[in-house]
Design brief:
alpha+beta; Alpha-Beta Plaits; 10 helices; two-stranded antiparallel ribbon; 267 residues; 3-methyladenine DNA Glycosylase II, Chain A, domain 3; elongated
């Protein structure tokens, strides 16, 4: 009886193993070679700038033909070219973008409502009476953006404003997501000029709170030869679809709020 049981168990084991082998072959998920190849050329930073949770998500979408190969700002043109070769599509050129801080109101140019002694964090001070800056739109200067930058492209300046290294910036968007006042914007390097202010306060209040904010004087609006600038809600706004980058507004602005953030020889 013991011998028969052993033989029977062995036969059942062989049958089960045979069945499992067949099931494995029938239901096996084939590895997508393109996915693996794409994933190998992506930088692996998982910053999310491409719009996906990480490099694996972007690679999967590319392998399925659902995304463009030029969405990885960290990898840049070299990675985009490799991906386009893997998936067999023509690469569409995308202009490099950089992060720009839309504020110039450092400690020497703006006033504070109170002396903050708490946690050294913009997000922390921002919830205390709207922050310690008199300008409710200005940079709080405690460097949350610097801490989240993975590429050493941000550092705090002597006037307590973050400075962007445009050569190192990959336009990953972490600073944009982190700033509690939404002061960072990712712009194409050819976009010039730029209004470095987000204050919607009236002229007198802006002058009182900051030496270098937009005072809605409308001089730029009047001087622009193609009517590309309009003052909306006390702030100059540029329509880049018609702006010719002539620079007249840069010269005309009495507050020096409108500037060429990227030198023309960098375009």
């Amino acid at each position: 009886m013991i011998l028969e049981s052993i033989i029977l168990a062995g036969i059942i084991g062989v049958i089960i193993g045979f069945v499992l082998a067949i099931v494995e072959k029938v239901f096996a998920v084939k590895s997508d070679e393109r996915y693996e190849a794409i994933l190998s050329v992506l930088p692996g930073i998982n910053c999310g700038a491409c719009g996906f949770p990480g490099c694996s998500g972007y690679a999967q979408s590319l392998a399925q033909g659902k995304s463009e190969p030029n969405l990885c700002s960290v990898g840049g043109i070299s990675v985009a070219q490799k991906i386009s070769e893997i998936i067999g599509v023509e690469l569409k050129q995308v202009e490099k973008r950089v992060a720009v801080l839309l504020c110039q109101g450092g400690r020497s140019k703006s006033i504070e409502k109170f002396n903050y002694k708490g946690i050294s964090s913009c997000s922390a001070v921002n919830i205390i009476d709207g922050g310690n800056k008199a300008c409710s739109y200005g940079c709080l200067g405690l460097g949350d953006c610097v801490l989240v930058c993975q590429f050493d492209a941000l550092k705090m300046g002597s006037d307590k404003l973050p400075i962007v290294d445009k050569e190192k910036c990959t336009a990953c968007g972490k600073c944009v997501q982190t700033c509690p006042r939404g002061l960072f914007e990712l712009i194409p390097i050819s976009r010039t000029p730029v209004v470095l202010c987000k204050s919607r306060e009236n002229g007198p209040d802006t002058r009182k709170n900051c030496k270098i904010g937009c005072i809605a004087c409308r001089i730029c609006e009047k001087k622009c030869p193609v009517s590309a600038i309009k003052v909306i809600d006390n702030l100059a706004v540029i329509d880049y679809s018609i702006c010719t980058s002539c620079g007249i507004c840069v010269e005309a602005c009495p507050q020096k709020v409108i500037v060429n953030v990227v030198p023309k020889n960098k375009e």
